[in-house]
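To close the section, here is one more complete example, presented without commentary so you can practise reading it yourself. The ligand is copper (II) ion.
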Amino acid sequence: MADLNLSASPSPGGKNPKASAPKGAASKETPKLRMSPAGDHSPVSRTAGAIIGVVSVVALALAIFLSNPTAPTTQGTGAGTGTTASSVTPTGHTTRVSVGVEGMAFTPNHIEVPVGDRLIIDFTNSGDQRHDLVFETGVTSGSLATGETKELDLGVISGDVEGWCSLPGHREMGMTLHVQATGVSSGTSSSGASSSAGASASGGHAGHDHGQDAAAGPATPTELTDYAATITPRDPVLPPATSETERHYTFTVTEQTVNVTSSLTRQTWTFNGDAPGPILRGHIGDTFHITLVNNGTMSHSLDFHAGLVSPDQVMRSIEPGQTLEYTFVAKNAGIWLYHCSTAPMSMHIANGMFGAVIIDPTDLGTVDREYVMVASELYLGADGQSADASLLSALAPNAMAFNGVPFQYKAHPIQIKTNERVRVWVMDAGPNLATTFHVVGTQFDTVWREGAYVIRGGGSGGGWGQVLTLGAAEGGFVEFTPLEAGHYSFVNHALSLAEKGQVGVFEVSD
Ligand SMILES: [Cu+2]
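Output:
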Protein backbone atom coordinates (compact mmCIF):
# COMPACT_ATOMS: atom_id res chain seq x y z
CA MET A 1 0.00 0.00 0.00
CA ALA A 2 0.99 3.57 -0.25
CA ASP A 3 3.41 4.83 2.33
CA LEU A 4 1.55 7.03 4.75
CA ASN A 5 2.70 8.94 7.74
CA LEU A 6 -0.11 10.10 9.95
CA SER A 7 1.99 11.19 12.86
CA ALA A 8 0.23 13.96 14.68
CA SER A 9 1.95 17.03 16.01
CA PRO A 10 -0.78 18.83 17.91
CA SER A 11 -0.40 22.24 19.37
CA PRO A 12 -0.12 22.32 23.16
CA GLY A 13 -3.79 23.06 23.53
CA GLY A 14 -4.74 20.25 21.24
CA LYS A 15 -6.98 22.55 19.26
CA ASN A 16 -4.94 22.91 16.14
CA PRO A 17 -3.65 19.47 15.28
CA LYS A 18 -1.52 19.02 12.22
CA ALA A 19 -0.45 16.07 10.21
CA SER A 20 2.46 15.72 7.89
CA ALA A 21 3.09 13.36 5.06
CA PRO A 22 6.42 12.37 3.60
CA LYS A 23 7.44 14.03 0.40
CA GLY A 24 7.21 11.82 -2.60
CA ALA A 25 4.24 9.89 -1.29
CA ALA A 26 1.81 11.72 -3.51
CA SER A 27 0.19 9.55 -6.11
CA LYS A 28 -3.22 8.84 -7.48
CA GLU A 29 -3.34 5.70 -5.38
CA THR A 30 -2.62 7.48 -2.12
CA PRO A 31 -5.65 7.28 0.14
CA LYS A 32 -6.79 10.64 1.37
CA LEU A 33 -8.15 10.77 4.85
CA ARG A 34 -9.75 13.48 6.85
CA MET A 35 -11.06 13.10 10.35
CA SER A 36 -12.95 15.92 11.90
CA PRO A 37 -11.86 17.29 15.27
CA ALA A 38 -15.39 16.69 16.52
CA GLY A 39 -14.75 13.00 16.82
CA ASP A 40 -16.27 11.66 13.64
CA HIS A 41 -13.59 9.24 12.50
CA SER A 42 -15.11 8.20 9.23
CA PRO A 43 -13.24 9.36 6.17
CA VAL A 44 -14.84 12.23 4.39
CA SER A 45 -13.74 10.91 1.07
CA ARG A 46 -11.64 8.17 -0.34
CA THR A 47 -9.82 7.63 -3.55
CA ALA A 48 -11.32 5.02 -5.81
CA GLY A 49 -9.14 1.98 -6.19
CA ALA A 50 -7.50 2.34 -2.81
CA ILE A 51 -10.20 0.99 -0.56
CA ILE A 52 -7.93 -1.52 1.09
CA GLY A 53 -5.43 1.20 1.85
CA VAL A 54 -8.10 3.45 3.26
CA VAL A 55 -9.50 0.70 5.43
CA SER A 56 -6.04 -0.08 6.71
CA VAL A 57 -5.37 3.53 7.50
CA VAL A 58 -8.71 3.92 9.22
CA ALA A 59 -8.01 0.82 11.25
CA LEU A 60 -4.63 2.19 12.21
CA ALA A 61 -6.07 5.54 13.12
CA LEU A 62 -8.81 3.94 15.18
CA ALA A 63 -6.27 1.74 16.90
CA ILE A 64 -4.25 4.80 17.83
CA PHE A 65 -7.38 6.55 19.01
CA LEU A 66 -8.64 3.60 21.02
CA SER A 67 -5.29 3.05 22.66
CA ASN A 68 -5.38 6.59 23.95
CA PRO A 69 -8.87 8.02 23.79
CA THR A 70 -7.73 11.29 25.29
CA ALA A 71 -5.20 11.95 22.57
CA PRO A 72 -5.96 14.82 20.27
CA THR A 73 -7.64 13.77 17.10
CA THR A 74 -5.65 13.81 13.95
CA GLN A 75 -6.18 15.94 10.93
CA GLY A 76 -4.67 13.92 8.14
CA THR A 77 -4.40 15.00 4.57
CA GLY A 78 -1.94 12.41 3.40
CA ALA A 79 0.34 13.75 0.75
CA GLY A 80 -2.35 15.68 -0.96
CA THR A 81 -1.70 18.80 -2.91
CA GLY A 82 -3.76 21.46 -4.54
CA THR A 83 -4.68 19.01 -7.27
CA THR A 84 -6.53 16.72 -4.91
CA ALA A 85 -9.11 19.18 -3.82
CA SER A 86 -11.77 16.51 -3.92
CA SER A 87 -10.25 14.92 -0.84
CA VAL A 88 -11.11 17.81 1.42
CA THR A 89 -14.19 19.82 2.04
CA PRO A 90 -13.76 23.24 0.49
CA THR A 91 -14.28 25.97 3.03
CA GLY A 92 -15.50 28.39 0.44
CA HIS A 93 -12.87 30.77 1.74
CA THR A 94 -10.08 32.18 -0.39
CA THR A 95 -6.66 32.95 0.98
CA ARG A 96 -4.84 35.54 -1.07
CA VAL A 97 -1.12 36.20 -0.63
CA SER A 98 1.29 38.51 -2.40
CA VAL A 99 4.71 37.03 -3.13
CA GLY A 100 7.72 38.98 -4.33
CA VAL A 101 11.40 38.36 -4.99
CA GLU A 102 14.36 39.69 -3.08
CA GLY A 103 17.77 38.69 -4.36
CA MET A 104 17.50 34.95 -4.95
CA ALA A 105 14.59 34.27 -2.62
CA PHE A 106 10.83 34.51 -2.63
CA THR A 107 9.33 36.81 -0.03
CA PRO A 108 7.60 35.31 1.78
CA ASN A 109 9.00 31.86 1.17
CA HIS A 110 6.59 30.13 3.54
CA ILE A 111 2.84 30.47 3.42
CA GLU A 112 0.37 28.82 5.76
CA VAL A 113 -3.09 28.17 4.40
CA PRO A 114 -6.01 26.46 6.13
CA VAL A 115 -6.89 23.15 4.54
CA GLY A 116 -9.87 23.55 2.28
CA ASP A 117 -9.15 27.17 1.44
CA ARG A 118 -8.60 28.20 -2.13
CA LEU A 119 -5.17 29.82 -2.49
CA ILE A 120 -4.46 32.63 -4.89
CA ILE A 121 -0.94 34.03 -5.11
CA ASP A 122 -0.24 37.41 -6.64
CA PHE A 123 3.33 36.85 -7.76
CA THR A 124 5.37 39.92 -8.63
CA ASN A 125 8.91 39.54 -9.89
CA SER A 126 10.44 42.30 -7.79
CA GLY A 127 13.93 40.89 -8.35
CA ASP A 128 16.62 42.19 -10.67
CA GLN A 129 16.38 39.48 -13.32
CA ARG A 130 13.81 37.16 -14.88
CA HIS A 131 12.20 34.56 -12.65
CA ASP A 132 9.22 32.28 -12.62
CA LEU A 133 7.22 30.55 -9.93
CA VAL A 134 6.14 26.99 -10.56
CA PHE A 135 4.38 24.54 -8.30
CA GLU A 136 4.54 20.77 -8.18
CA THR A 137 0.89 20.79 -9.13
CA GLY A 138 1.82 22.20 -12.52
CA VAL A 139 0.62 25.72 -11.83
CA THR A 140 3.20 28.13 -13.25
CA SER A 141 3.62 31.83 -13.75
CA GLY A 142 5.76 31.48 -16.84
CA SER A 143 8.93 33.53 -17.08
CA LEU A 144 8.36 37.06 -15.78
CA ALA A 145 10.50 40.11 -16.45
CA THR A 146 11.41 42.41 -13.61
CA GLY A 147 8.29 44.17 -12.41
CA GLU A 148 5.77 41.83 -14.01
CA THR A 149 2.94 40.33 -11.98
CA LYS A 150 0.95 37.14 -12.47
CA GLU A 151 -1.98 35.75 -10.53
CA LEU A 152 -1.63 32.06 -9.70
CA ASP A 153 -4.69 30.07 -8.67
CA LEU A 154 -3.61 27.00 -6.72
CA GLY A 155 -7.18 25.87 -6.18
CA VAL A 156 -8.44 24.31 -2.96
CA ILE A 157 -5.53 23.37 -0.74
CA SER A 158 -5.62 19.84 0.63
CA GLY A 159 -1.99 19.45 1.62
CA ASP A 160 1.43 21.03 1.49
CA VAL A 161 2.55 22.31 -1.91
CA GLU A 162 6.10 23.03 -3.00
CA GLY A 163 6.97 25.85 -5.35
CA TRP A 164 10.23 27.11 -6.83
CA CYS A 165 11.83 29.14 -9.60
CA SER A 166 12.61 26.83 -12.49
CA LEU A 167 15.34 28.92 -14.11
CA PRO A 168 18.56 26.91 -14.00
CA GLY A 169 20.24 27.10 -10.62
CA HIS A 170 17.69 29.42 -9.06
CA ARG A 171 15.96 26.76 -6.97
CA GLU A 172 19.30 25.57 -5.65
CA MET A 173 20.17 29.16 -4.75
CA GLY A 174 17.19 29.15 -2.42
CA MET A 175 14.26 30.20 -4.58
CA THR A 176 11.72 27.87 -3.02
CA LEU A 177 8.25 28.60 -1.73
CA HIS A 178 6.60 26.25 0.73
CA VAL A 179 2.84 26.30 1.06
CA GLN A 180 1.90 24.68 4.33
CA ALA A 181 -1.64 23.43 4.74
CA THR A 182 -2.65 24.09 8.30
CA GLY A 183 -4.86 21.60 10.02
CA VAL A 184 -8.10 23.27 10.79
CA SER A 185 -9.97 25.72 8.72
CA SER A 186 -12.32 28.09 10.45
CA GLY A 187 -14.89 26.96 7.92
CA THR A 188 -17.01 29.88 8.90
CA SER A 189 -16.28 32.20 6.04
CA SER A 190 -19.08 32.67 3.65
CA SER A 191 -18.76 31.16 0.24
CA GLY A 192 -16.61 33.20 -2.06
CA ALA A 193 -15.22 35.34 0.71
CA SER A 194 -11.72 36.54 0.07
CA SER A 195 -9.27 37.87 2.56
CA SER A 196 -5.73 37.45 3.71
CA ALA A 197 -6.74 36.91 7.30
CA GLY A 198 -6.16 33.18 7.13
CA ALA A 199 -2.67 33.46 5.77
CA SER A 200 0.40 33.47 7.89
CA ALA A 201 3.49 34.37 5.98
CA SER A 202 7.05 34.42 7.11
CA GLY A 203 10.40 34.78 5.47
CA GLY A 204 12.36 32.72 7.90
CA HIS A 205 11.52 29.25 6.71
CA ALA A 206 14.42 27.46 5.16
CA GLY A 207 12.24 25.66 2.66
CA HIS A 208 12.67 22.14 1.44
CA ASP A 209 15.65 20.75 -0.31
CA HIS A 210 14.93 20.07 -3.94
CA GLY A 211 18.50 19.31 -4.84
CA GLN A 212 19.03 16.44 -7.20
CA ASP A 213 21.13 13.49 -6.30
CA ALA A 214 24.67 13.80 -7.51
CA ALA A 215 24.80 11.54 -10.52
CA ALA A 216 27.69 9.73 -12.06
CA GLY A 217 29.00 11.40 -15.15
CA PRO A 218 26.76 10.81 -18.13
CA ALA A 219 29.72 10.85 -20.53
CA THR A 220 32.86 8.75 -20.22
CA PRO A 221 36.30 10.11 -21.14
CA THR A 222 36.31 7.73 -24.10
CA GLU A 223 32.96 9.01 -25.34
CA LEU A 224 34.11 12.60 -24.91
CA THR A 225 37.37 11.93 -26.76
CA ASP A 226 35.62 10.05 -29.55
CA TYR A 227 33.26 12.95 -30.05
CA ALA A 228 36.08 15.51 -29.93
CA ALA A 229 37.75 13.62 -32.77
CA THR A 230 34.73 14.24 -34.98
CA ILE A 231 34.69 18.02 -34.61
CA THR A 232 36.94 20.84 -35.74
CA PRO A 233 38.82 21.98 -32.65
CA ARG A 234 38.69 25.57 -31.58
CA ASP A 235 41.78 27.36 -32.93
CA PRO A 236 44.09 27.80 -29.93
CA VAL A 237 46.37 30.27 -31.75
CA LEU A 238 46.45 33.74 -30.21
CA PRO A 239 47.06 36.39 -32.89
CA PRO A 240 49.05 39.51 -31.97
CA ALA A 241 47.12 42.56 -30.84
CA THR A 242 46.17 44.89 -33.66
CA SER A 243 47.30 48.52 -33.54
CA GLU A 244 43.94 50.22 -33.13
CA THR A 245 43.30 51.94 -29.82
CA GLU A 246 39.50 52.24 -30.02
CA ARG A 247 38.14 48.71 -30.11
CA HIS A 248 34.53 47.92 -30.88
CA TYR A 249 32.83 44.58 -30.34
CA THR A 250 29.33 43.20 -30.22
CA PHE A 251 28.68 40.39 -27.78
CA THR A 252 25.46 38.60 -28.64
CA VAL A 253 24.06 36.23 -26.05
CA THR A 254 22.29 33.14 -27.32
CA GLU A 255 21.12 29.93 -25.73
CA GLN A 256 21.39 26.70 -27.67
CA THR A 257 21.81 22.96 -27.43
CA VAL A 258 25.15 21.47 -28.42
CA ASN A 259 26.57 17.98 -28.51
CA VAL A 260 28.97 16.83 -25.83
CA THR A 261 29.16 13.31 -27.18
CA SER A 262 27.43 11.69 -30.13
CA SER A 263 24.54 10.75 -27.85
CA LEU A 264 24.54 13.51 -25.22
CA THR A 265 23.72 17.18 -25.61
CA ARG A 266 23.75 20.07 -23.21
CA GLN A 267 22.33 23.54 -23.21
CA THR A 268 24.91 26.29 -23.49
CA TRP A 269 24.58 30.03 -22.96
CA THR A 270 27.20 31.87 -24.94
CA PHE A 271 28.68 35.15 -26.10
CA ASN A 272 28.75 35.03 -29.91
CA GLY A 273 27.80 31.40 -30.08
CA ASP A 274 30.79 29.71 -28.52
CA ALA A 275 32.26 28.94 -25.13
CA PRO A 276 34.62 30.55 -24.38
CA GLY A 277 33.39 33.75 -25.96
CA PRO A 278 35.70 35.92 -28.08
CA ILE A 279 39.29 36.30 -26.87
CA LEU A 280 40.08 40.01 -27.06
CA ARG A 281 43.61 41.38 -27.13
CA GLY A 282 44.97 44.89 -26.90
CA HIS A 283 47.43 47.21 -25.28
CA ILE A 284 47.48 49.31 -22.15
CA GLY A 285 45.53 52.49 -22.86
CA ASP A 286 43.16 50.96 -25.41
CA THR A 287 39.47 51.72 -25.08
CA PHE A 288 37.09 48.79 -25.41
CA HIS A 289 33.52 49.48 -26.52
CA ILE A 290 31.30 46.44 -26.14
CA THR A 291 27.66 46.28 -27.13
CA LEU A 292 25.96 43.48 -25.25
CA VAL A 293 22.89 42.09 -27.03
CA ASN A 294 20.69 39.66 -25.13
CA ASN A 295 19.08 37.31 -27.63
CA GLY A 296 18.46 34.68 -24.96
CA THR A 297 15.34 33.83 -23.01
CA MET A 298 16.50 34.99 -19.59
CA SER A 299 18.45 37.82 -18.01
CA HIS A 300 22.18 38.03 -18.73
CA SER A 301 25.02 40.48 -18.16
CA LEU A 302 28.74 41.10 -18.49
CA ASP A 303 31.60 41.68 -16.08
CA PHE A 304 34.98 42.58 -17.58
CA HIS A 305 37.76 42.18 -15.06
CA ALA A 306 39.91 44.14 -17.52
CA GLY A 307 38.04 47.36 -16.73
CA LEU A 308 38.11 49.66 -13.73
CA VAL A 309 34.52 50.88 -13.65
CA SER A 310 31.65 50.98 -11.21
CA PRO A 311 29.73 47.73 -11.57
CA ASP A 312 26.36 49.37 -10.93
CA GLN A 313 25.35 50.19 -14.47
CA VAL A 314 27.53 48.28 -16.91
CA MET A 315 27.28 44.97 -15.07
CA ARG A 316 23.53 45.06 -14.60
CA SER A 317 21.40 42.25 -15.96
CA ILE A 318 19.45 43.02 -19.09
CA GLU A 319 16.29 41.45 -20.39
CA PRO A 320 15.94 39.39 -23.55
CA GLY A 321 15.84 41.78 -26.49
CA GLN A 322 17.71 44.53 -24.67
CA THR A 323 21.18 45.90 -25.34
CA LEU A 324 23.78 47.50 -23.12
CA GLU A 325 26.85 49.60 -23.87
CA TYR A 326 29.91 48.70 -21.84
CA THR A 327 33.04 50.82 -22.23
CA PHE A 328 36.30 50.57 -20.35
CA VAL A 329 39.89 51.67 -20.76
CA ALA A 330 42.47 48.94 -20.32
CA LYS A 331 44.76 50.51 -17.78
CA ASN A 332 46.74 47.48 -16.76
CA ALA A 333 48.26 44.38 -18.32
CA GLY A 334 46.92 40.93 -17.66
CA ILE A 335 44.86 38.10 -18.98
CA TRP A 336 41.54 39.18 -17.57
CA LEU A 337 38.43 37.09 -17.19
CA TYR A 338 35.07 38.27 -18.39
CA HIS A 339 31.84 36.51 -17.59
CA CYS A 340 28.12 36.87 -17.21
CA SER A 341 27.43 38.14 -13.71
CA THR A 342 23.75 37.29 -13.47
CA ALA A 343 22.93 35.09 -10.51
CA PRO A 344 23.72 32.35 -10.06
CA MET A 345 26.99 33.30 -11.68
CA SER A 346 28.36 29.79 -11.26
CA MET A 347 25.52 28.50 -13.45
CA HIS A 348 25.94 31.17 -16.13
CA ILE A 349 29.69 30.54 -16.31
CA ALA A 350 29.29 26.77 -16.21
CA ASN A 351 26.93 27.05 -19.17
CA GLY A 352 29.55 28.86 -21.22
CA MET A 353 29.38 32.58 -20.45
CA PHE A 354 33.06 33.37 -20.04
CA GLY A 355 36.08 34.53 -21.98
CA ALA A 356 39.26 36.54 -21.67
CA VAL A 357 40.75 39.93 -22.49
CA ILE A 358 44.51 39.94 -22.89
CA ILE A 359 46.30 43.23 -22.35
CA ASP A 360 49.93 42.76 -23.24
CA PRO A 361 52.58 43.55 -20.66
CA THR A 362 54.85 46.21 -22.13
CA ASP A 363 57.88 43.99 -21.65
CA LEU A 364 56.47 40.94 -23.42
CA GLY A 365 59.25 38.98 -25.12
CA THR A 366 59.34 37.50 -28.59
CA VAL A 367 58.13 33.96 -29.21
CA ASP A 368 57.60 31.74 -32.24
CA ARG A 369 54.14 30.53 -31.31
CA GLU A 370 51.49 31.84 -29.02
CA TYR A 371 48.38 30.04 -27.79
CA VAL A 372 45.59 30.66 -25.34
CA MET A 373 43.92 28.02 -23.18
CA VAL A 374 40.81 28.90 -21.20
CA ALA A 375 40.22 26.27 -18.56
CA SER A 376 36.66 25.53 -17.53
CA GLU A 377 34.47 22.97 -15.83
CA LEU A 378 31.43 21.12 -17.17
CA TYR A 379 28.69 19.83 -14.91
CA LEU A 380 26.87 17.57 -17.31
CA GLY A 381 23.34 16.65 -16.41
CA ALA A 382 20.59 14.93 -18.32
CA ASP A 383 20.50 15.15 -22.09
CA GLY A 384 19.66 18.62 -23.30
CA GLN A 385 19.94 20.25 -19.90
CA SER A 386 22.08 23.11 -18.68
CA ALA A 387 24.65 22.50 -15.95
CA ASP A 388 23.57 20.20 -13.13
CA ALA A 389 23.02 22.54 -10.21
CA SER A 390 23.72 19.94 -7.55
CA LEU A 391 27.05 18.97 -9.05
CA LEU A 392 27.85 22.64 -9.49
CA SER A 393 27.09 23.39 -5.87
CA ALA A 394 29.21 20.43 -4.81
CA LEU A 395 32.17 21.63 -6.93
CA ALA A 396 32.02 18.24 -8.64
CA PRO A 397 32.40 18.66 -12.41
CA ASN A 398 32.12 15.50 -14.48
CA ALA A 399 34.00 16.91 -17.46
CA MET A 400 36.77 19.50 -17.89
CA ALA A 401 37.90 21.49 -20.87
CA PHE A 402 40.50 23.71 -22.42
CA ASN A 403 38.73 26.15 -24.74
CA GLY A 404 35.33 24.68 -24.09
CA VAL A 405 35.57 21.11 -25.39
CA PRO A 406 36.94 18.21 -23.31
CA PHE A 407 39.87 16.37 -24.89
CA GLN A 408 39.78 18.39 -28.13
CA TYR A 409 43.55 18.91 -28.30
CA LYS A 410 44.16 15.32 -27.37
CA ALA A 411 42.04 14.30 -30.34
CA HIS A 412 43.63 17.04 -32.47
CA PRO A 413 47.23 17.65 -31.30
CA ILE A 414 48.71 21.13 -31.77
CA GLN A 415 51.62 21.07 -34.23
CA ILE A 416 54.90 22.79 -33.37
CA LYS A 417 58.58 22.40 -34.27
CA THR A 418 61.56 21.56 -32.12
CA ASN A 419 63.44 24.54 -30.69
CA GLU A 420 60.50 26.88 -31.24
CA ARG A 421 59.80 29.16 -28.33
CA VAL A 422 56.19 28.74 -27.26
CA ARG A 423 54.02 30.95 -25.07
CA VAL A 424 50.77 29.61 -23.67
CA TRP A 425 48.37 32.02 -22.01
CA VAL A 426 46.11 30.29 -19.51
CA MET A 427 42.91 31.66 -18.01
CA ASP A 428 41.10 29.73 -15.32
CA ALA A 429 37.46 30.56 -15.99
CA GLY A 430 36.32 28.07 -13.37
CA PRO A 431 33.72 28.69 -12.20
CA ASN A 432 35.21 26.97 -9.17
CA LEU A 433 38.35 24.91 -9.39
CA ALA A 434 42.06 25.59 -9.68
CA THR A 435 44.24 24.82 -12.67
CA THR A 436 47.87 23.77 -12.38
CA PHE A 437 49.05 24.01 -15.97
CA HIS A 438 51.91 21.69 -16.82
CA VAL A 439 53.48 20.60 -20.11
CA VAL A 440 54.94 17.11 -19.87
CA GLY A 441 58.57 16.93 -20.99
CA THR A 442 59.25 20.64 -20.64
CA GLN A 443 60.25 23.13 -18.00
CA PHE A 444 59.25 26.76 -17.96
CA ASP A 445 62.04 29.33 -17.95
CA THR A 446 59.35 32.01 -17.83
CA VAL A 447 56.18 32.07 -15.75
CA TRP A 448 54.01 35.17 -15.58
CA ARG A 449 51.09 35.05 -13.21
CA GLU A 450 48.58 37.72 -12.23
CA GLY A 451 50.56 40.75 -13.27
CA ALA A 452 54.14 39.72 -12.56
CA TYR A 453 56.90 37.40 -13.66
CA VAL A 454 57.28 34.56 -11.20
CA ILE A 455 60.43 33.64 -13.10
CA ARG A 456 61.81 35.08 -16.31
CA GLY A 457 64.53 33.50 -18.43
CA GLY A 458 65.16 31.17 -15.54
CA GLY A 459 64.94 31.97 -11.88
CA SER A 460 67.61 32.72 -9.35
CA GLY A 461 70.26 30.08 -8.78
CA GLY A 462 69.30 28.21 -11.95
CA GLY A 463 65.69 27.55 -10.94
CA TRP A 464 62.96 26.86 -13.53
CA GLY A 465 59.27 26.09 -13.20
CA GLN A 466 56.97 23.15 -13.86
CA VAL A 467 53.45 24.53 -13.37
CA LEU A 468 51.47 27.72 -13.63
CA THR A 469 49.06 27.57 -10.72
CA LEU A 470 45.82 29.47 -11.11
CA GLY A 471 42.79 29.71 -8.88
CA ALA A 472 39.39 30.50 -10.33
CA ALA A 473 39.58 33.73 -12.38
CA GLU A 474 43.37 33.89 -12.28
CA GLY A 475 45.46 34.04 -15.42
CA GLY A 476 49.00 34.11 -16.70
CA PHE A 477 51.34 32.60 -19.25
CA VAL A 478 54.26 30.23 -19.50
CA GLU A 479 57.09 30.01 -22.03
CA PHE A 480 59.03 26.93 -22.99
CA THR A 481 61.03 25.41 -25.83
CA PRO A 482 60.71 21.72 -26.69
CA LEU A 483 64.12 20.37 -27.61
CA GLU A 484 63.17 17.03 -29.12
CA ALA A 485 60.44 15.72 -31.40
CA GLY A 486 57.62 13.91 -29.68
CA HIS A 487 54.23 14.20 -28.05
CA TYR A 488 54.13 16.64 -25.16
CA SER A 489 50.90 16.44 -23.23
CA PHE A 490 49.67 19.55 -21.49
CA VAL A 491 47.44 19.00 -18.51
CA ASN A 492 45.82 20.38 -15.48
CA HIS A 493 48.14 18.59 -13.08
CA ALA A 494 45.25 18.17 -10.69
CA LEU A 495 45.15 14.90 -12.55
CA SER A 496 41.63 13.75 -11.81
CA LEU A 497 40.59 16.88 -13.66
CA ALA A 498 42.96 16.17 -16.54
CA GLU A 499 41.38 12.74 -16.81
CA LYS A 500 37.99 14.41 -17.20
CA GLY A 501 39.16 16.29 -20.27
CA GLN A 502 41.69 18.99 -19.35
CA VAL A 503 44.45 17.44 -21.38
CA GLY A 504 45.87 18.06 -24.83
CA VAL A 505 49.00 17.34 -26.83
CA PHE A 506 51.71 19.41 -28.46
CA GLU A 507 52.98 17.27 -31.32
CA VAL A 508 56.56 18.40 -31.84
CA SER A 509 58.39 17.57 -35.05
CA ASP A 510 61.84 18.42 -36.38
CU1 LIG B 1 24.10 34.90 -18.22
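Once you have examined the C-alpha coordinates, check your reading against these statements. Confidence is low (pLDDT under 50) at residues 1-85, 185-216. The CA atoms of residues 235 and 244 lie 23 Å apart.
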